[in-house]
């Protein structure tokens, strides 16, 4: 029996219904009042609220605006709050504590200002890049932001790169803030699922390239800088990375991955991939990666986003006192799911 094609009215109704469903999927305006995210938004406001207590209202470049009993916080604020909730497996009290600590740190350290600072190119040029790819196989995104850290660039003189821990951390924070800016959170339209119910679409991919890096001989300055940076990122940048790819890792070191798995959560293991050859990366990130990673994309140098560098021979302004203190200060103890599950990551990654 043949079926008559749908009328124009029927097609319009079907299209409108589909549009409505899609809108509901990306809309928090009907967020239940019992949802932890709704309560989190309310907790931002008031004289005893998180924003008043920290005297700061910016996170990842997004202005945080409180919600009320009758109205949820703005969409972009909810995005940030959901990241902190997910990092704490939905535990609202722990999420509040971590957010408060992160806001206090951002007020003191001023990471957004690092983006406009000029760094010593002789130390850091060639060490980090940010670009985008459109065919990553492990995410559901049409396009992904990728942050590359080329540790082989520092292998010849690790003391010059990592010797000044404060300068290296400041540079790496600048790269992170530039990466977050590429996520365009202030114009985000999708929602982020609750913990355990799907991936966060607003995260970046990290690539760590270890070409020419020795795994057997790690100088003290690398260990010191790596430890400080890993701790800082775990505390103050939750839910910012989706997957990590470690490339050009010597075959002889593959045993390290097996040993690390015993110390890591299943979630962490699934988000980390080690490969011996850099040209294998395209099988995960598609053809947009540069030639050395098996793709056909443009070279990173001269095309990708990087922190700013001072002209050769120009004096580089030293890290200000308050920034140095913020780097060295012992942060408040915040135990989160993200810190616990990532405790087994290799110190050489320097995030």
TrEMBL record:
Bilayer topology term: Peripheral membrane protein
Chief site of localization: cytoplasm
Swiss-Prot/TrEMBL cofactor(s): heme b
Localization in the cell: Cytoplasm; Endoplasmic reticulum membrane; Microsome membrane
Keyword check for Cell membrane: no
Composition bias type Polar residues, residue spans: 319-339
Top-level division of the source organism's lineage: Eukaryota
Coiled-coil region list: none
Keywords annotated in UniProt: Cytoplasm, Endoplasmic reticulum, Heme, Iron, Lipid transport, Membrane, Metal-binding, Microsome, Transport
Catalysed reactions, semicolon-separated: a 1,2-diacyl-sn-glycero-3-phospho-(1D-myo-inositol)(in) = a 1,2-diacyl-sn-glycero-3-phospho-(1D-myo-inositol)(out)
Start and end residues of each CRAL-TRIO domain: 166-301
Protein name stated in the entry: Phosphatidylinositol transfer protein SFH5
Organism encoding this protein: Ramularia collo-cygni
UniProt-annotated stretches for the region Disordered: 319-351
Family: Belongs to the SFH5 family.
Keyword Cell inner membrane: no
């Amino acid at each position: 029996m043949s079926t008559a094609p749908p009328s124009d009215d029927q097609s319009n109704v079907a299209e409108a219904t589909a549009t409505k469903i899609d809108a509901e999927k990306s809309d928090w305006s009907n967020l239940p009042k019992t949802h932890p995210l709704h309560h989190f938004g309310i907790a931002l406001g008031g004289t005893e609220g998180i924003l008043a207590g920290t005297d700061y209202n910016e996170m990842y470049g997004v202005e945080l605006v409180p919600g009320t009993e009758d109205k949820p916080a703005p969409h972009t604020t909810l995005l940030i709050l959901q990241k902190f909730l997910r990092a704490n497996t939905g535990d609202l009290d722990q999420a509040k504590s971590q957010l408060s600590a992160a806001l206090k740190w951002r007020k003191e350290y001023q990471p957004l200002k690092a983006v406009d600072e000029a760094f010593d190119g002789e130390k850091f040029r060639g060490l980090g890049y940010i670009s985008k790819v459109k065919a990553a196989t492990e995410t559901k995104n049409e396009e992904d932001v990728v942050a590359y850290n080329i540790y082989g660039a520092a292998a010849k003189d690790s003391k010059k790169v990592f010797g000044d821990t404060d300068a290296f951390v400041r540079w790496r924070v600048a790269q992170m803030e530039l990466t977050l800016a590429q996520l365009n959170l202030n114009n985000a339209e999708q929602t982020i699922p609750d913990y355990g119910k799907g991936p966060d679409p607003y995260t970046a991919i990290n690539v760590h390239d270890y070409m020419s890096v020795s795994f057997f001989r790690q100088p003290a300055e690398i260990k010191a800088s790596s430890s400080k940076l890993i701790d800082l990122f775990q505390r103050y940048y939750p839910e910012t990375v989706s997957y990590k790819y470690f490339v050009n890792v010597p075959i002889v070191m593959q045993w390290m991955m097996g040993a690390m798995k015993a110390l890591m959560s299943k979630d962490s293991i699934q988000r980390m991939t080690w490969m011996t050859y850099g040209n294998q990366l395209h099988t995960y990130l598609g053809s947009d990666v540069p030639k050395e990673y098996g793709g056909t994309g443009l070279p990173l140098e001269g095309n990708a986003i990087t922190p700013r560098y001072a002209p050769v021979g120009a004096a580089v302004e030293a890290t200000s006192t308050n920034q140095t203190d913020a780097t060295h200060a012992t942060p408040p103890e915040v135990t989160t799911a993200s810190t616990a599950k990532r405790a087994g990551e290799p110190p050489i990654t320097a995030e």
